[in-house]
Amino acid sequence: MSILVEKSTRVVVQGVTGKEGTFHALACREYGTKVVAGVTPGKGGILHEGIPVFDTVTDAVAKEGANTSLIFVPPAFAADAVLEAADAGVRLIVCITEGIPTLDMVRVARVLQGRDARLIGPNCPGIISPGKAKVGIMPGHIHSPGRIGVVSRSGTLTYEAVGQLTARGIGQSTCVGIGGDPIIGMSFVDALRLFQADPETDAILMIGEIGGTAEEDAAAFVKAHVTKPVIGFICGQTAPPGRRMGHAGAIISGGTGTAAEKMAALRKAGITVVQSPAEMGQAVARVLPAVPAGRRTPRRRVSAGAARNRKGAARRPAARGKGRSIAKSRSR
Amino acid sequence: MKIHEYQAKTILAEFGVPVPRGRVATTASAAGGIAQELGGTVVVKAQIHAGGRGKGGGVKLARSAQEAEQAASQILGMMLKTHQTGPEGQLVKRVLVEEGMAIRQELYLGIVIDRTAGLPVLMASSAGGMEIEEVARTRPEAIVKAHVDPATGVRGYHTRKLGYGLGLKGDLLKAAGEFVTKLYQAFEAKDCSLAEINPLVITGDGRLLALDAKMTFDDNALSRHPEIQALRDLDEESPLEVEASKYNLNYIKLDGTVGCMVNGAGLAMATMDIIKLAGGEPANFLDVGGGASAEQIENAFRILISDTNVRAVFINIFGGILRCDRLAEGVIRAVRALGVRLPIVIRMEGTNVELGQRMLRESRLNFITAQGMKDGAEKTVRAARGA
Lengths: 332, 387
Fold this sequence. Notes:
The complex is a heterodimer of chains A (about 325) and B (about 375).
Chain A: E1 10-14, H1 19-31, E2 34-39, E3 47-48, E4 51-54, H2 57-64, E5 68-71, H3 75-87, E6 92-95, H4 102-112, E7 118-120, E8 126-129, E9 133-136, E10 145-152, H5 156-167, E11 172-177, H6 188-197, E12 203-209, H7 214-225, E13 230-235, H8 259-268, E14 272-274, H9 280-287, H10 304-309, H11 312-319, H12 326-329
Parallel strand pairs in A: 1-2, 1-5, 2-4, 5-6, 6-7, 10-11, 10-12, 12-13, 13-14
Antiparallel strand pairs in A: 3-4, 8-9, 8-11
Chain B: H1 5-14, E1 22-25, H2 28-38, E2 42-46, E3 59-62, H3 65-75, E4 79-80, E5 90-91, E6 95-99, E7 103-114, E8 119-125, H4 132-138, E9 143-147, H5 156-165, H6 170-189, E10 192-203, E11 208-210, E12 214-217, H7 226-229, H8 239-246, E13 250-253, E14 258-262, H9 265-277, E15 284-287, H10 294-306, E16 312-323, H11 324-338, E17 344-351, H12 353-362, E18 367-369, H13 372-386
Parallel strand pairs in B: 14-16, 16-17, 17-18
Antiparallel strand pairs in B: 1-6, 2-3, 2-6, 4-5, 7-8, 7-10, 8-9, 10-11, 10-12, 13-15
Helix pairs in contact in B: 2-3, 5-6, 10-11, 11-12
């Protein structure tokens, strides 16, 4: 299993006839993703590179059964595109667009609260379950199927991490980039909850950065609810305060949101913190032997729902086998 | 994007937020003229983006037009140093001349986006004049907060929470409600990321007034606010950063000697980090964008080598889909065109890596190829020391 996207995922690409939309729709399809529809208002009815195009997401859902949306709409119209997808009943919305005004996202986030639709991004590379489906702009070939969950606020730094894992023969269950903006849909906590419940994820690599308190929230969640080993890296250890480091959300303001604070919070929660970005793969490899070999393939069939309902503490003894226990190796 | 105090007050006045009477001047005699018009005691305030101007000597009280002119002549042209400017200070080109007044109490009022809640948050404090971060650390109980749902805007309960929280009563409570409502309207209409009135004062005659004002704007929303873009003051920004922004390059100048050029913001930050771990100091943050096109590489090089502190350059590109032979071609062309003499360490991932590396070697330029970002950082730091 994997989280959120799998072989059966049916993708509609919003902004499919644009340059970026076309390129990545085809790259996703080539990877094996079911790209069943595209949406470009005014171009409904055409077939674009073999993909049926509709004027509205509602049509794409009704006619092609799309359940996941991938958005390449320009920033001024992207908030509208997200709301349209949610309104059409799409359950997973992946918004790649960078540069959406923050107050637009405030309104979108407010509307999505309490709905079934889950938003990933914006300003993110998307999500991939290696060997199953790619709904994003990441290079597919650097990934390999396996049992590590990866969650990150970054794009190319995630590729770097995945590249390090794959080079060591460590595959990934799902890799999700949650985005570099101040207001995003899916959070670290959401991703950690899903990875914890996923029986085919053994360990989680979490890549954070300066700005905000998402990493601190994640640390608190890990301490309370995550029994799987978590490896963390925070970029921006050398970033000056008060400057926006490329990502709209990557800013140390009023002395808070520093990498040092975040790394301390992660360590306190028992997360293995890597100092160097070159050592992410190595750190994951180091915790893996602690997972008994038998556990690397699913031993028991546990439905995601059942696993989610169990609390961390109750699950821990059963989940850990012999040898250097991961749970123990963390200072709780 | 940041703007000056006088610009923020002009915007706030358009929304009906009460601000002191006053105008901006670029010469001492004009400042004297404004003081004459206002009559009585005036305050002459240096207009730079950095905070802490008063402590640095950038704010002076003047009892007459003549004194105002004198104060302005001292402030204009000075290199004003505050805790936010850096050691060399910031050149003062404008002063704001405002009416002076008796102050009964100083308060704080600010609006920012609360990232965790995903909503704008109103913050008020009775500790006016102090930095809100300092108050949050030392007297968190002195801050009253209320989140605003943009669907409803500011309602009566928000303003009552803030007003009573500040201990206001009667007419002042009512005035505070109007003040907060109008400030929020400005915040929302102009796509602010921060609107801060510090201090918000209660005058001797019982009025509420924005004695200082700070507004910053969401860069992502500037395209729909040409009127705000027009307020940008390039003198307040580093010249290299202004140049970089013309080419959509994310560049931030730092103090080290190891230049770096990276695709993607996260990887660019991580590259700075690993340079430091390798014993060097990064000279900059530079994100050339996900694609790293030949044109972007050339623009990026031009900016990197304009920083004379740079002793070596580390190019760290994780392309994936990107073709490394094309990247190598772009780098070689840029280095030749610009006559770059510095040692350049290149680490790249993508398709055709071997071909790209061979092209670099065969170019006979000063390239050093690296395997992985650790190797790249170490080689660059070594090269920077040797140069």
